[in-house]
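SEQUENCE-TO-STRUCTURE ENTRY
===========================
Question of interest: how does this chain fold, as expressed in backbone structure tokens?
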Amino acid sequence: MSMEDLVNTLREKRAEAAAGGGEKRVEKQHAKGVLTARERVEKLLDPGTFHELDAFKVHRSTDFGQEKSHLPGDGAVTGYGEIDGRTVFLYAQDFTVYAGTLSETVAAKICKVLDLATDAGAPIIALNDSGGARIQEGSGALQGYGDIFYRNTQASGRVPQIAAIMGPCAGGAVYSPALMDFIFMVDKTSHMFITGPQVIKTVTGEEVSMDDLGGAKPHCTKSGVAHFTTKNDEDCLLQIRRILSYLPSNCDEQPPSIDPPTELEDYSEKITKHVPDNPRRLYNMVPLVEMIMDPGSVMQVAPKYAPNLMTAFARIGGRPVGVVGNNPQFYAGCLDINASDKGARFVRFCDAFNVPIVTFVDVPGFLPGIQQEHSGIIRHGAKMLYAYSEATVPLITTIIRKAYGGAYIAMGSKHLGADIEYAWPTAELAVMGPEGAVNIIFRKDLAGAEDKAAKHAELVADYQDRFASPYVGAARGYIDEIIEPAETRERILSALIALSNTRKRREPRRHGNVPL
């Protein structure tokens, strides 16, 4: 055959592979309002940058009539490309080919890009849309899952791993996304669960819909398994591109900075008035953070799960940071089990990828209650202590209002390694709130007072001056500087610049033992 004939044959085979499961199955995907695997890859990456690997690979199974069907690519599109000019490796399960099920061959394709990404120091993106393990292959498919889980674990902390659930994801398939750093879900069209509604009904008698069991809403609000809910496939892919803009390609690089904004609205008055004078009144931490950071740069992580603790990526002066902040609008900003888990994992992720952590504190304590105690608030709360204590990135903390008890320590305090700790004049550092403390310490004095209300007010004011004032913490060096609210942005940015070459060293060890 001539070179021309060989090239034409190659082009025909490429077209066959690009066709996936065929026109009818592609139409079925579109009828559901979702994109095909190849369409997702093309929309995610910079135009013209995708390079496919193993496009002609086929399964080797000969059981149950499998030898009669060999579609090129075998249920997954794999390769590499660029996002904003930076290399990423990815795989997209193709539901039009064997329902995107995982065969031994598909697993080998996925493992190849995971290995390449880890060795090259490039992010990994997984677009999941699969019917699960290919039953006809039995243990071969299960072995494939194990091989993928192992590589997810080895890549953890070395390169960012982003998972998108863009269709079904059930059984063993859910554990690869769970081992990755962030999970995106598409509202109404994506589902993930260990066992589906039919199995649950058979085993427990409970009836539940696919959406109520494993849709985006329960996983982003109740279970905490997923971090982002997106409107459709296009929105999901756009949000993946956005989160990568805050992150380095690997643990040895610094996060990518951009040019700082040239024009900033003057939020000085709004910032000063945002926090109520009455410490009992609630407010929303999110708008405050948005006024302090670069305009439009705040991307909340898991905003609907444990909303009493805000976690977000943002930029200040064009520099990426991770933000952690108590939100008094929910549970008065208390740390509970879910908030502790959410905050600790976010802090550890930022630390793994050199993202400085900016913390805003307004915490009255750990959430009290029998359920919290019996569910393990002690061990869960300890995760926050552990995460901040082991962090080596710059830690900049600002106390806005309440900073009480062990929760104050857990929120990136000086005692856990904060490099710079600021406080507003409204800050209160104490074992507990002044009113509660007075009721305990001066119980007898109050009982014998003629005017109990006046005596109580007098003692509370004295306690605040002597113990809860930010000047007490500043006198002991727990607070580096007491600042005006309007100065917060400037102070955080200056500290971030000053600490940009920080190198904290820890004693060598195999690894620590994180509280469960």
Observations:
- The chain is about 40% helix and 15% strand.
- Residues 40 and 357 are 33 Å apart (CA to CA).
- Residues 104-120 form the longest helix (17 residues).
